[in-house]
Amino acid sequence: MKTRSTILGALTATLMATSAAFAGDVRIMWYSDGVEGDVIKDILDRFQKDNPDIRITLDNVAYKVVQEQLPIQLEAGQGPDIARVTNIKELASHWLDMRPQLKDAKYWDDNFGSTLDWMRPDGSDAITGFMTQLTLTGGFANKTLFDQAGVAIPGEKATWDEWVDAADKVAKSQSLPAAFAIDRSGHRISGPNVSYGANYIAADGSPAKVDDGTKAFGSKLVQWVADGKMLKETWVAAAGSTYRAGADDFINAQVPFYYSGSWQVSNLSSKIKDNFDWVATGSPCGSGGCSGLKGGAALVAVKYTKNPGDVVKVMEYLSREDIVKEFSERTLFLPAHKGVVDKGGLTWVSDDKNVAPAMDAFVKAAAQTLPAADALPSWKWANAYYGALVTRLSQVMAGEMKIDDAWAKIDQDVSDKVAQAK
Q1: Domain 14-134+296-343: what homologous superfamily?
Q2: Rounded to two decimals, what is the model's pTM?
Q3: Which CATH number among 3.90.640.10, 3.40.190.10, 3.40.50.150, 2.30.22.10 corresponds to the domain 135-294+356-421?
Q4: HSE-up of 407 (CA within 13 Å, CB side)?
Q5: Which of 354, 152, 389, 360 is CA-nearest to residue 250?
Q6: 134-149 CB burial, b ≥16 within 10 A, e <16
């Protein structure tokens, strides 16, 4: 017998899976990492006050729903009218091309042009949505620990070796478990790989074989674990491509240097409070540059909507320069809007003295990424490459595989993913 909660749950899923059926109805599927759900509701409430003929339903769901249930709904030709998603390229065939109905398509091309390819089919000039925020990988340093150890924080163009050596001096001075931690993620190490000259993409768009740049930084990671400089548990305490962050180790002052990304700023601020001072460092340099890797979440229109005109009106409002600026400032997200970035002067909403300098540092670093890194967010095989990297390198760190064998395994893992997709 089905319970009442089971029936209600199924009913809710059915309602969320169905595009708005009545004129003026716009249903938005939204997930939140922090306060952005409250912020977007406030912004949409103002829109509805000025546009009473459009009725917006904001479905705040768990990220797992967006990742697992939304693709199923879309394959059935259903889904919300608008959705906030991170799997934007692989699902691009389901997004609505708004270009023909936009009042000013040039505005979108000018201000969101650098990321529009991330969310449309290859070879298309469709305008399907915009990034609600950019994310950028980068580092954080515990300034208090560096000061206590009498070690200078490395400068803007410092290399990975210089950062790890400096952090190691701090760790030894303060009797810490390790010098630094980096998230267990193939995505997280890809900016550093590119900084050493890596390029995952072959000339025909297919996955390239593991190159010297990837081997250079990957070998350093393995050696840093062997030397006790990199926190081993972050990588070997999980299996396969399972993601594991090192944030708690940094928050608990167990490592003086942590490499993750801009999305951690709000998390660090809320949990560290005034326990110690911290700074965003940008990405350390390799032989080819000092690049992080961009990503983020997009707000996209779904082509199965019954009310495309109303959907476009909502999207035009949310993409306005003043709205993007407000949303970014209140959520502590990097804006993906060229006009907002170029004008600067963002006023980050936080009482934490560490937040504004950290966000400004990430905005600056976002303009310094390398082309090989910028190509990855719109590349359909990126996730396959990321997963293979983290799986095999963690096996090497755990002593289960030799590093030369890992490179061959990564190539095979990626090749298998391509074959499965075909």
Answers
A1: Periplasmic binding protein-like II (3.40.190.10)
A2: 0.84
A3: 3.40.190.10
A4: 16
A5: 354
A6: bbbbbbbbbebbbeeb
3-state SS class at 112: helix
The residue type of 318 is L
Q: Which amino acid is at 364?
A: K
What DSSP line would sit under 196-232, residue for residue?
TT---B-TTSSBPPP-HHHHHHHHHHHHHHHTT-B-T
Structural contact between residues 201 and 208, judged by C-beta atoms closer than 8 angstroms: yes
| Type and span of the H or E element at 308 | helix 308-318
| 359, 157 Cβ separation under 8 angstroms | no
Nearest CA-CA partner of 383 in 420, 336, 333: 420
Per-residue pLDDT reduced to its tens digit, 6-54: 333 444 444 454 556 566 899 999 998 878 999 999 999 999 999 999 9
The Cα 81–Cα 289 span in angstroms is 41
